[in-house]
UniProtKB/TrEMBL annotation:
A zinc finger (C3H1-type) spans 91-122. InterPro entries: Aldolase_TIM, DUS-like_FMN-bd, tRNA_hU_synthase_CS, Znf_CCCH. Catalyzes the synthesis of dihydrouridine, a modified base found in the D-loop of most tRNAs. Specifically modifies U47 in cytoplasmic tRNAs. Catalyzes the synthesis of dihydrouridine in some mRNAs, thereby affecting their translation. This is tRNA-dihydrouridine(47) synthase [NAD(P)(+)]. Residues 21-31, 259-284 have a biased composition (Basic and acidic residues). It comes from Musa acuminata subsp. malaccensis (Wild banana). Pfam families: Dus, zf-CCCH_DUS3L. Its cofactor is FMN. Residues 1-95, 257-290 are annotated as: Disordered. GO terms for biological process: mRNA processing. Residues 91-122 form the C3H1-type domain. Its EC number is 1.3.1.-. SUPFAM superfamilies: FMN-linked oxidoreductases.
């Protein structure tokens, strides 16, 4: 389905409208060219940029802090230098002992002289930055602030810092934290996975030599060149053995086998005999052939007789499934879809929330930063987590670990992530080219899990070669309870419009036992209602970027109205996010700056919202390119700026002045209308 014109062409059109008094086209013509039809009285010339823009960022959307005259490239520090700086930081007076800070008593630390932190409260208070305006988020929630004198709102604690530690603390509103004992066991590869190992054995995917799937630490040390980083995380490849012993010949990449291979030793079961038969190998060859020719695939399940396949049937039908019908589902959103943001969306009407995508190998290695993505707030009554992995054994063990240690209502497997660093490791949307591996992953995970399993995919890998419609029934038979389809291919990324006609086609082919959810370009309540009415078999629609730009979309859908929200109301939403962020990341200096960072990441999306009162045609479409315009007040104009310097100004209105030398560059592209990276 063809979408708007390429970004470069559209950008020239916007510039032409705003220069030298050009005749303004009709609103209908602007909409046809995917340009937002802002009323003429609000248009203004594009602001001049006084700062050089980083060449790695598109559309001039990012600029360094206004006080900087040049872009400074920092030199990469050596490990020795970093280690020396860490030791100096530990000796700094600002690195005060948490126990001393919490109690306000220098003798409260149980380690006394052996503590590696500073115990001099007077020296710390002398160097501590001034308190921020406002009230401590913990005090506002009638809780004891765990940050004590380090809290940037300590002046509002009153007598709290002098309270005795014996006072019972209120129950935490967040769950799914990583237990330190469990983390140590994961580090030492001493966690057992009996359910996953049993199911892998039944499926003929048992790993040999008694090694664990979470033995990624040694693997990373031996093969550092294979580490990948996603949100500072690493994804480990499942290795391969000789082609004759590997269950999936599609593990081959460009005719070569990875050196960091993890051998998969098959069990001598009936399932092994089936999988190693010439029929299976011929099927895999035909799958690759069909992929190259853009043809539909034959179902892998047709290769097995019902008698031989009894041991492979998952027990997912015995699991109580979540009814997604008619519910407002906030999509898992990397970086910005954090817990404080999900709290905002819940308050504005979201029914179902899902955590950010977590890499399976990082969870099995006990990485605290990855486990933080599984955190759940008490307000999230229907909550799931999304995981991403390339191989059945890794995914199955991760599923068992989450099922055992976390409070979640469902687990979603990402098979549609288009990011190169994930796809190159055979995870995410790379699985769309390997239906047998999709089958093995879903079967292994669903038969291990005691909760519903869902899958998220794209229409296909290559543009114009959609293939999910041929796999919909199979995905249900393999054990998935729900399937979310993003109406774009991996090659499209986020360019052009989502193909909802194809989503409808897939939903009509799905069996009654499989709920199908649509995803792509929902930006108003009319979009949501249209898609649900056009295809009654569609259970609901997942909302992603639309919620990033205007989280009140959930309120609009529930109340079935277009909300011309004021700048003050939008600013209050940002205030609520800051309060939730300080409660989640901490109210000390580190927590304040972490909250600021994620606030700025969010602001790199919200500026794209155009108030309804400024448009000639409503509602706004997600692919419209906004011209430069004035708001109805100064705050609205500031919120419409695409300059990072203005985003920083907004953060300073909420969190005080930024530290000296502070700069910000968004992690993700905030434009949905850039050209596709057809790799």
């Amino acid at each position: 389905m063809e979408g708007a014109a390429p970004a470069k062409e559209g950008s020239e059109s916007v510039g032409a409208l705003e220069s030298e008094g050009a005749t303004r086209p009709r609103p209908e013509d602007l909409v046809a060219r995917a340009i937002a039809p802002v009323k003429a009285e609000y248009l203004r010339p594009p602001p001049s940029r006084s700062v050089a823009v980083d060449s790695g960022v598109e559309d001039g959307s990012i600029e360094k802090k206004s006080s900087s005259a040049n872009v400074v490239v920092k030199e990469k520090k050596s490990r020795r230098q970093l280690k020396r700086e860490r030791k100096q930081e530990q000796k700094s007076t600002r690195n005060i002992c948490p126990e001393v800070a919490k109690s306000g008593n220098a003798d409260a630390c149980p380690y006394r002289g052996n503590c590696r932190f500073n115990h001099d409260m007077d020296a710390y208070l002398a160097e501590k930055p001034p308190d921020l305006e406002g009230t401590c988020p913990f005090v506002s929630a009638e809780e004891f602030c765990p940050y004590g004198i380090t809290c940037r709102y300590a002046s509002t604690h009153r007598q709290q810092t002098s309270l005795k530690l014996e006072v019972p603390a209120t129950k935490s509103s967040e769950v799914n934290s990583l237990n330190k004992d469990l983390q140590k066991l994961l580090w030492k590869n001493k966690v057992s996975f009996p359910n996953a190992d049993l199911q892998l054995k039944l499926l003929g995917l048992e790993r040999g030599n008694g090694a664990r799937a979470n033995s990624g630490a040694d693997h990373m040390k031996n093969h550092p060149e294979n580490n990948i980083h996603l949100d500072d995380n690493k994804e480990m490849l499942c290795s391969l053995g000789a082609p004759t012993t590997c269950l999936e010949n599609d593990c081959l990449d460009n005719g070569s086998i990875s050196d960091d291979s993890r051998p998969l030793k098959k069990t001598k079961s009936q399932a092994d005999k089936i999988d190693s038969s010439p029929k299976t190998k011929n099927f895999e060859e035909s799958q690759d052939s069909c992929l190259q020719n853009g043809l539909e695939d034959v179902s892998p399940d047709n290769l097995y007789s019902s008698k031989d396949d009894l041991s492979l049937k998952p027990h997912a039908r015995e699991i109580k499934l979540i009814d997604f019908r008619g519910k407002l589902y906030l999509a898992p959103l990397t970086t910005v879809g954090n817990l404080p943001f999900r709290r905002i969306c819940k308050a504005l009407g979201a029914d179902i929330t899902c955590g950010e995508m977590a890499m399976c190998t990082n969870l099995l290695q006990g990485q605290a930063s990855e486990w933080a993505l599984l955190r759940r707030h008490s307000s999230e009554d229907i909550f799931g987590v999304q995981i991403c992995g390339a191989y059945p054994d890794t995914v199955a063990r991760t599923v068992e670990l989450i099922d055992r240690e976390c409070e979640v209502d469902f687990i979603d497997i990402n098979m549609g992530c288009p990011i190169d660093i994930v796809v190159n490791k055979q995870a995410g949307s790379a699985l769309l080219t390997k239906p047998l591996r999709m089958k093995n992953i879903i079967q292994a995970a669903s038969s291990t899990l005691s909760k519903p399993l869902t899958v998220k995919v794209r229409t296909g890998y290559f543009e114009g070669r959609n293939r999910i419609d041929s796999l919909v029934s199979d995905i249900s038979n393999w054990g998935a309870g729900a399937l979310t389809i993003h109406g774009r291919s991996r090659q499209q990324r986020y360019s052009k419009l989502a193909d909802w006609d194809y989503i409808y086609e897939c939903a009509k082919k799905a069996p009654e036992s499989l709920q199908v959810l649509g995803n792509g370009d929902i930006f108003s309540y009319t979009d949501w209602i249209k898609h649900t009415l056009d295809c009654p078999k569609l259970s609901t629609c997942m909302i992603a970027r639309g919620a990033l730009i205007k989280p009140w979309i959930f309120t609009e859908i529930k109340e079935q109205r277009h909300w011309d929200i004021s700048s003050g109301e939008r600013f209050n939403i940002l205030k609520d996010f800051v309060q939730s962020g300080l409660h989640h990341w901490g109210s000390d200096t580190k927590g304040v700056e972490t909250t600021r960072h994620f606030l700025l990441e969010w602001l790199s999306y919200t500026y794209r919202y155009i108030p309804l009162g400024l448009l000639d045609v409503v509602p706004q479409r997600l692919n419209w390119r906004p011209p430069s315009y004035y708001g109805r007040d100064d705050l609205e104009t500031l919120m419409a700026s695409d300059s990072a310097a203005d985003w920083i100004r907004i953060s300073e209105m909420l969190l005080g002045k930024v530290p000296e030398g502070f700069t910000f560059t968004p992690k993700h592209k905030s434009n949905a209308y850039d050209s596709a990276e057809n790799g």
